[in-house]
Amino acid sequence: MKINKLKKVEYIISILLIMIMFLGTISVYANQKTDLTNEQKDIDKQIQETSSEIAGVKSQMTDALNQINNYNSQIGTYEDEISTLETQVSSLQSQITEKEVNIQNQEKKYQEQQELLNKRLVAMYESGTTSYLDMLLSSSSLSDFISKYYVIEQLTEYDNELLNGIENTKKQIETEKIALENAKNEVQSSKTQAENKRNSLSVLVNEKNTLVGNLSAEEKELQQKLEEFEQDKKDIQRQLAEIARQEEEERRKAAEEAAKKAGKPVSDADTSFTPNTSGFICPLSGKSKRNITTGMNGYKGHTGVDFACPQGTPILAAKDGKVVISTALRNSSGGYRSYGEYISISHGDGTMTLYAHMSRRAVEKNAQVKQGQVIGYVGSTGNSSGNHLHFEIFVSGRRVNPAQYLP
Predict the structure, then answer these.
(1) Are 323 and 353 members of one domain?
(2) What is the pTM of this model?
């Protein structure tokens, strides 16, 4: 009987222990769920706060400042287009100079060939009416016949080559002159387009300046911050474009050197290069383009994509490459401005990436990095009101939409 009671007691104790363990587990899961819910709320809040780099001042922007920001975007577009047209004109003018020199050389060659032909005709005229057949029939022996036949064959071949050369040179001159005329017309067209865009740009600048003149002191301070940021973006664009140009020049020289060593003429195919825009990973572990919180052109002047995430989240190199910029943009008072702490990597394949608003950089300029390597940590430095990563991709030195290339 005592044994049965003891067994019942043990059974009850076992049940109680299981219930305690179960309740403890429920409590742990409940706490974890609460933590996850809170974390999700924090992230949602950050996502709402983090709309862009301009988020740092956007909440304070009046209608006038928004309009000025739109003007800045349009002005930047016109300036880029004018710069492209000016580069095009410069390239065409170089081609025109080259074609003019080539035409001069071809005309000189044509003149020399024509003089040779005239001398040949004079020689034939002075030799009288004697034909090649008369020469052969006048042979004194078989060896004399063969010798004269060889001379006649050489003369005929020379005459044919001379006439063909004159004809080909003439055609080449005509082709070069047509190409030259087309290049000149294209230059004029590009100059006209550039002039029209300069006029439009001037109108926009005047309209913007009128608005700026009516801003309050506080608005002017914010407007200056936006102007500063736009200028920083342009400077970075030019810097990366120059790096891309230098890399392309190095690739071209290497290709020419390789062709020379192989003992073959250098062709356009040898020196042509197509950037490799594949193989990128998302710069944040476990995320993809579906996690982008503000896309490119999500507002006027947004030049990349934003990922809202907690401060200190590791930022990863999207591809293997070399760090070409690792710096912090600061204003005159020492505070962060624009991109704040940022890094740019050249991937050696015609593409570059940029990572901005970091809390801390983990690599310095000229460092070689591997895809997936931690290069810095998410923060909110510069023009930003919430922790996020601003990410850009450049192809041949020009910004493109990262969402096209991210997994």
Answers:
(1) yes
(2) 0.62
